[in-house]
Design goal:
By secondary structure, the chain is α/β, with parallel strands linked by helices. The chain has 11 helices and 8 strands. The chain has 2 domains: 157 residues, 2-enoyl-CoA Hydratase, Chain A, domain 1 (Alpha-Beta Complex); 59 residues, no CATH class. Helix content is 50%, strand content 13%. The protein has a 4-stranded parallel β-sheet with strand order 1-3-5-8, with helices on both faces. The radius of gyration is 19 Å and the shape is globular.
């Protein structure tokens, strides 16, 4: 992830798994053998928060092609947004296994589906289908399985067609404001907008891209 994030020829990262699963989580056979090192918290980022990978400056689209279970669900939640195959299923079985999450699940899952639904998933360990995940807001789209990666790449192309400097700053801004209160977030957004738009370069860039923006908008109406 770090290598890809640092490449000049990459604008968007698409993360998926090998069929038939996205990621089924920790190896329970290994865990049951007493080798608990496999479930220790690792990948602590600069903010001090535990992460499976350091926060990227480029957006990460999760293409969930199958089961995303427990640690696999945490991997999915670390993506900026998710598109799912019709075969995808989601579950948090930490409490069934007898371990606790360490990659942000208790923060990120309530952000995605709401606190009460997150508690239901974590306390029951029940599986959630792709269709339910869509209704709950966990995923943005549910796609026929064979069309999943082409669809994810299409979204990646839509993102890469934008001004990358401002897109990456907006991505970072989302991270900043969602870790604060609403009032603090509004203040952060206002400050960033003033700094970003006040140097005059944004206006000239908009004029340069104006016709392309108009044509793209017309094509989507």
């Amino acid at each position: 992830m770090a290598d890809t994030d640092g490449r000049d020829d990459v604008s968007v990262i698409v993360l998926t798994g090998a069929d038939p699963a996205f990621c089924a989580g920790v190896d329970l056979k290994e865990l049951g053998s007493g080798r608990r090192g496999s479930v220790t918290v690792s990948g602590v980022g600069r903010s001090g928060a535990a992460r499976p990978w350091e926060r990227t400056v480029k957006p990460v689209i999760g293409a969930i092609n199958g089961a995303a279970i427990t640690g696999g669900l945490e991997l999915a939640l670390q993506c900026d947004f998710l598109v799912a195959s019709e075969r995808a299923v989601f579950a948090d079985t930490h409490s069934r296994v007898g371990i606790l999450p360490g990659w942000g699940l208790t923060v990120l899952l309530p952000q995605a589906v709401g606190l009460r639904r997150a508690k239901e998933m974590s306390l029951t360990g029940n599986f959630v289908s792709a269709e339910v995940a869509l209704a709950w807001g966990l995923v943005n789209h549910v796609i026929p399985h064979d069309e999943l990666l082409p669809f994810a790449r299409k979204l990646a192309a839509d993102i890469s067609g934008n001004d990358q400097r401002s897109a990456r700053r907006m991505l970072a801004e989302y991270d900043e404001v969602t870790s604060t209160t609403i009032a603090e977030g509004l203040e952060i957004e206002a400050r960033i907008a003033t700094e970003w738009n006040g140097d005059g370069s944004a206006a000239s860039d908009v004029e340069r891209r104006r016709q392309a923006i108009i044509e793209r908008g017309r094509s989507q109406v």
